[in-house]
Amino acid sequence: MIIGLTGKNGSGKGEVANFLKERGFHYYSLSDAIREEAKKRGVEISRDTLIALGNELREKEGPGCLAERIFAKLDPEKHYVIDSIRHPSEVRVFRRRPNFTFLCVRAPERLRFERLRQRGRENDPGVWEDFQAIEAKEAKSENRTDQQLDQALMLADIQVDNNGPLKELHDKVKQILVKLAQSQPRPGWDEYFMNIAKVAALRSNCMKRKVAAVIVKDKRIISTGYNGTPRGITNCNEGGCPRCLSIETSGKDLGECLCSHGEENAIVQAAYHGVALKGATLYTTFSPCLMCTKMIINAGISEVVYQATYPLSDISFKLLQQAGVTIRQLAA
Q1: What angle do CA 94, 97, 98 make, to 5 degrees?
Q2: Could you tell me which residues are beta bridge partners of residue 101?
Q3: For residue 328, what are the CA distances in angstroms to 10, 148, 276?
Q4: For residues 197 and 212, is the Cβ–Cβ distance under 8 A?
Q5: Contact (CB, 8 A) for 272 and 292
Q6: pLDDT computed for residue 332 by the predictor
Q7: End-to-end distance of the chain based on CA atoms, in angstroms?
Q8: Is the pLDDT reported for residue 237 higher than 90?
Q9: Binning pLDDT at 50, 70 and 90, where does residue 266 land?
Q10: Is 74 exposed, middle or buried (0-12, 13-18, 19+ CB in 10 A)?
């Protein structure tokens, strides 16, 4: 889950960010990317210099450059809160992740001004006229690469009004978190098991093609296998299979290949450990060849789910259908 934050000065973005950090969210701020650049240049950090430097970076590297710097650091397995999103292009960068939600924190002008006065930071405006001048400067610009806060605010998925006690704000954020958690997409079972097969294929040592299979029963993985030379034989990519080492034409001299197929290894692995396969489903990254098809039928596997089509699969498909084995292809 990635929650992006935007809002005008004194709206309460920082409070929302702190609330999320205390609940395990990893924190990034786009202004931190500007601060890092300022430190490299030896520039004194103030609100005005940060705005000017941010505009300069957007002009040179593109309006989404600050977001790109943060985006590259994100781990898909972690939750993040991203603060200080101030340009539509920055929003578009994070929307490349399906689990991104853009949240705008709002509060009336006078209330925000009073909060800044009470906060009393060195660079905060102390009089109403200075506050309004900063608001106008940050809201929009004729230069498309400059900060465009007003345009960014309009892209928010959720608006949070922060015009009451802090506990009220926290309660609103809690409700948002629950709804977001409930709406987060999860892979279906087919996608889940096929993705595991794809990862297993990365273990293949075959010189020609990386293929793997996962055998599942009652939504539980009972065996896996990937293609490569038999147990105890030199790996294919280390010279264990002369045919593969010669980089022979695809489909030629298959009978001389020493590598076992992914489906074959998954079935044999189950036999090695005494695991019955009757009624199981086999997920494979490539549709099975004829030899593997015969093993699938005789092992009692009831369904084959594959992604890519093996070039020599016509006979295999007919044989599986004749044996009553269900066969399905998943979209790549």
Answers
A1: 125
A2: 3
A3: 56, 49, 22
A4: yes
A5: no
A6: 67
A7: 25
A8: no
A9: very high
A10: middle
CA distance 114 to 127: 10
Residues 6+ apart with CB under 8 A from 211: 201, 204, 226, 227, 261, 262, 284, 285, 286
Task: Give the tens place of pLDDT for each residue, 51-87.
Answer: 788 888 888 888 888 899 899 999 988 999 999 899 9
Q: Which amino acid is at 78?
A: K
Helix axes 13-21, 166-183, angle to 10 degrees: 60
What residues have CB less than 8 Å from 37, skipping those under 6 apart? 53, 57
Q: Catalytic residues, which ones?
A: 263
**DSSP letter assigned to residue 18:** H
Three-state secondary structure call for residue 286: strand
Residue 149 DSSP label: H
124: pLDDT strictly greater than 80 = no
The residue written with tokens 């590297």 in the block is 61
Side chain identity at residue 249, one-letter code: T
Q: Across the beta sheet with 80-83, what order do the strands follow?
A: 26-29, 80-83, 2-6, 100-106, 158-161
Q: How wide is the angle at C-alpha 273 spanned by C-alphas 293 and 263, nearest 5°? A: 20
Block residue for tokens 């001389």: 256
- Kindly tell me if the per-residue pLDDT of 25 is higher than 60: yes
Tokens encoding 316: 């295999």
- pTM of the full structure: 0.70
Q: Of the ranges 183-192, 280-289, 299-308, which one carries the lowest mean pLDDT score?
A: 183-192
> What's the chain's average pLDDT?
88
Using left for φ > 0, alpha for ψ between -120 and 50, and beta otherwise, residue 254 falls in: alpha
